[in-house]
Every structure is written in structure tokens, then in C-alpha cells.
Amino acid sequence: MSGKRRDNKNRILRNGESQRKDGRYAFKYVDANGQVQFVYSWKLEKTDKTPTGKRDDISLREKEKMIQRDLYDGIVPNGGEMTVLQLVEKYVLQKTGVRHNTEAGYKTVINIIKKDSFGKQRIDRVKISDARAWLIKLQKDGRSYSSIHSIRGVVRPAFQMAVDDDLLRKNPFEFQLATVIVNDSVTREAITRKQERVFLEFVKNDKHFSKYYEGIYILFKTGLRISEFVGLTTQDIDLKKRTIDVNHQLQRTRTMEYVIEDTKTNAGTRVLPMTDDVYECFKSILENRPKPKVEPMIGGRMGFLYLDKNDRPMVAMHWEKYFQHICQKYNNLYRVQMPKVTPHVCRHTYCSNMAKSGMNPKTLQYLMGHSDIGVTLNTYTHLAFEDAENELKRVANGE
Q1: 252 with 268: CB under 8 angstroms?
Q2: Which of 92, 279, 293, 386 has its CA 20 to 30 A from that of 243?
Q3: CA distance 271 to 162
Q4: How much is the pTM?
Q5: How far apart are CA 395 and CA 399, in angstroms?
Q6: CATH class, range 199-382
Q7: Which residues are catalytic?
Q8: Contact at 8 Å (CB) between 264 and 225?
Q9: Cβ contacts of residue 314 below 8 Å, gap of 6+?
Q10: Can you give the pLDDT at residue 375?
């Protein structure tokens, strides 16, 4: 017994344990890569008190248990010495064949992490509290909830990849975002039927914006995504059968490159029937469509319905600006203000109106191109007391 090494409290030290002259404990071990490593603590056992003025930490023997468990389970020590930035870059490199918008989003996240000290942290040292604190900091720095949601949408699976690769035991980003930061995102609500009528009437009678009336009317009355609408060509419009063939979307990248992509989801590929008023709008667009000197061709498609002043297809940004300017002009003229109206508000308004009209949810799901019925059903949560009252009357009357 006398040959056993002891600490300054006369406790026997185990193999690999030692106590330094300043009182701090050390544990020496060989990691899975055959490298000698050390961990330290001011406490040997969990019940020990941390010396005054020293940083509190878990005890040495608690650390030993964690090390032994990691070695047994084959967890790579120190997270493979990888930083958060290196981990995210490695994750993104494996995401091949993604759409240009997704790729641009990845680059944005990487640039944010590059400029933040959090990106320099070693991944095995990132605790749940660190992950939460970083997201809170992002919001305090002025980033919106939706932006932080997108950032976390890249970082969380990157850390999960590290877990799957045995670099980490636990993903520090596995928590609900809404429990950490304030959801300050503005829900794009539908406008009322009256507001829709007033908005359309204003556009129709305005000298400048009236040329966009048919397009805006179609957005309100079909629920098309704006990327689907701008991607429509003369070949996609069948006036004889009165159908709209939605099988692609048009996007423009940050580098001003025009690209044709598949619809947002498989359910987004659909054929929509035209109502009489929508038919008249498409008929007018096709009859009045100016003939450019050279038809632009994007992804093997040509005959786009709307072209800009340079004879290039109009994209979502064009229409978003038109809606913005229309709202501004209207609100400058009238005391009763028009709420914010965007192409997506048109889509949401259409969905809400169809729901209020009693359309079968599965039919509405098809028309909207929703892959998940839950997205469609969420529209019904926007219905008010009057809607419920009218529905009960309709059922009671056997309609």
C-alpha cells in the first residue's frame, strides 16, 4: 500500500493519474490514433470543491469515464481537430447536384461562419449552450429568424454528419429553434376578397400598370408560384383544351444567368384547368404578346409570355417590384391603405379563397402543387368565425 501514489489528501491515484505541484490533477492516456493526450481538472472526484479563484469544471474522474467510453465506442478524439468552418465546408462539398438557389444559400452560410469566431471553434468543444448562444448572437446582430433558420438548416446536418462519422457523440444543434430565439418573421397572410377586387380594379384602370393586369389576375386566380408563372411559354398554354401545363420553373441566378429547373416538388408538376376569366386573360396575353427580333431560348424553351425591355424573360424579381410599386402608388392616393401584396400573397389568397369556398382539401392540394397535405390543411387554420358559421349553415341546409 505504501508504494501507491497519493494526492495531497492522501487518496490513492489510479494508473495514468497524477497531481501537479499547484494542486491540479492530470490524466495521461493514449488515444485511438496512438497519440499521448492529457486532460486536467482541479477536482479529482465529483464531490470535490473547486479551489477559490479557479475555473469550475467537471472532475478528472468524470473526464476519464468519458474518455474511456469514447475510446470503447471508437469516437475520434478531439473531433479530429476539425473546426466548425471546416466541418460545414466538408458537408457542403458533399451536396452535389443541388439547385442554384440552394448552392447560393450554402455559400452564404459559409461566408457568415468564416467571419464569426464561432467558426474557429473545435467541433468537439461546441456544447448545446454554445450552439444556443451563437444563434442568439446572430439575432442580436440583426439577422432575421428566417435567415437564422436557414443557417441552422446547414449547420445542424453538418454536425450530424460528424456524429455519424464518429467525430462526435452528440449533435449540439438538436433543439427547437423557437425555444432559443424570437420568431420575428412576418407571416404572408392572404388579403380579403374585397381587397383583392380593389387591388385588381386599381391595376386595371392604371395607365402604367394596366399592361400587367392579366398576369396579376392569373396569379390571383390560379395559385401559381411566381417561378412557375414566369416560366410559362406559349407551348404550355392550350387554349383549345383550356389547360395550363406546369412542368418547370424559371429562375435567374445571382450572376444573372437564366436557368430552367424542375418544379419545386414532384407534386408541383401538374396540369391546371382554366376558368373562363383566366382563359380570357391568357388569350389576351398571347394575342398582344410582342414579337421580339430574336426569341430568347432558355434551357431549350422559348416563347415566354412576358419579356423585359431587353427581350429577356421576366423573372420573379420583375413582378415583385411591380407589386411593390403598385402598393406604394395606391397607398399614396387613398386613405384606406392596401396591405403588402406580393406574388406569394396572390398564391396564398387563392388557396384561402378556395378553402373558404369548401373545396375538397385533396383537390386543393393538387391545384396548389403541395407535396404535403399538411401544407394545404394549414390554410384552413386561417378561416375565421364567420367561415365556420357559414359552413355550419351550409351543412344544416343540406347543401
Answers
A1: no
A2: 293
A3: 43
A4: 0.66
A5: 6
A6: mainly alpha
A7: 225, 264, 344, 347, 370, 380
A8: yes
A9: 230, 304, 306, 307, 308
A10: 80
What CATH superfamily is the domain 17-74? Classic Zinc Finger (3.30.160.60)
All residues at 6 or more sequence positions from 235 whose CB lies less than 8 Å from its CB, including other chains: 245, 301, 303
Write down the pLDDT at residue 102: 84
Q: Would you state the pLDDT for residue 336?
A: 93
Looking at residue 297, its pLDDT comes to 96
Which three cell numbers mark 213?
Answer: 393586369
Q: β-strands 243-246, 270-273: how paired? A: antiparallel
The pLDDT score that the predictor gives to residue 76 is 74
Do 17-74 and 199-382 show the same overall fold? no
C-alpha cell at 33: 490514433
**Three-state secondary structure of the chain:** CCCCCECCCCCECCCCEEECCCCCEEEEEECCCCCEEEEEECCCCCCCCCCCCCCCCCCHHHHHHHHHHHHHHCCCHHHHHCEHHHHHHHHHHCCCCCCHHHHHHHHHHHHHHHCCHHHHCEHHHCCHHHHHHHHHHHHHCCCCHHHHHHHHHHHHHHHHHHHHCCCCCCCCCCCCHHHCCCCCCCCCCCCCHHHHHHHHHHHHHCCCHHHHHHHHHHHHHHCCCHHHHHHCEHHHEECCCCEEEECCEEEECCCCCEEEECCCCHHHCEEEECCHHHHHHHHHHHHHCCCCCCCCCECCECCECCECCCCCECCHHHHHHHHHHHHHHHHHHCCCCCCCCCHHHHHHHHHHHHHHCCCCHHHHHHHHCCCCHHHHHHHHHHCCHHHHHHHHHHHHCCC
Dihedral through CA 9, CA 13, CA 18, CA 23, nearest 10?
A: -10
Q: Distance between CA atoms of 96 and 244, rounded to whole angstroms?
A: 32
Mean pLDDT for back-to-back runs of 10 residues, the chain (399 residues)? 81 93 93 82 95 93 87 73 93 86 89 95 94 95 91 95 89 92 73 95 97 98 97 97 96 90 91 97 96 94 96 96 97 95 95 89 94 80 61 65
Residue 258 has φ and ψ, to the nearest 5°, of -90, 135
Domain ranges of the chain: 17-74, 81-179, 199-382
Query: Which pLDDT belongs to residue 314?
Result: 97
